[in-house]
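Supplementary Note 3. Input sequence used for the single-chain structure prediction.
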Amino acid sequence: MRRLLVLTLMLFCVACNVLDNDTDDSPFVGELTVTDGLISDVSGDLPLNAGDPAPQALIETGERTENLRFALYAEECTGTGRLIQCDGGVEIYDPATGALLSTFATPQAATSVTVQDNLAYITWRSGDVLGGGGLVIADISTPENVVEVGAYPTLRHALTVDFANANTLYVLTMDSLHILDMSDPAAPRSIGTYTENVMLMDVIVVDDRAFVIQGSPCAPASSPFECDHHLLELDISTPDAPQSVQTIDLPDPETPYLYAEHRLTLIDGLLYVPVGDSRFVVMRG
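The predicted structure, written as discrete structure tokens, is reproduced below.
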């Protein structure tokens, strides 16, 4: 799938937008900024230089296949309190012409879409901040006529997914990582769950490890935002009993992680963690 990550040891403080790489066991490599499709600023030991074209994955947002482009849409919420309804879903486009091929509505507002083969895995959330969400699996083999084939409900907002292999899916909610057996997409089956008492925001999986962005609500009184973000490493070698391995501190972002344009991305063995709409901290893979 789109992302892999292997991380070890502790992260230390970041100051003045420069990462100290003198310690061999630090997972940090450097950081960079992207402006108008080009690398505009680089610090640390990166295989990129200022003025180089940025990797496409750091420019594009949203899910894309060779023949399709996907975009989330949301409609104005209605209702009040625990009865808020926020409708939404996914729009499917022909990337060559820009033509809208179809829309697919989710139970409430869609939060992410991930495509594998001819199936789209779409997460969604309710309008209630403490409410539920879920996963919808849709057959996109005929993009003009998308058909739901399966679903999995969650108690909290579902945010995103990642695959370990064709049959094992990791679904991240606001407080839990759900490990699902997807051998039958029409009937997802829970294998295991890991729950935290802080907000979870993104997940990346490699082999027997899962890495999760976690943090507290941001205080916007200053810039960078005071968000107290961390990277949590989980041992998922025993899927029915995931275990925490370590927590790595991340620098305060310029933009709260949930509202950044990009997500965790792995390119040529390096993990790019967005700490703003165009700024990335780079870690060893």
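Residues 1-23 have pLDDT under 50 and may be disordered. The chain has no helices and 20 strands.
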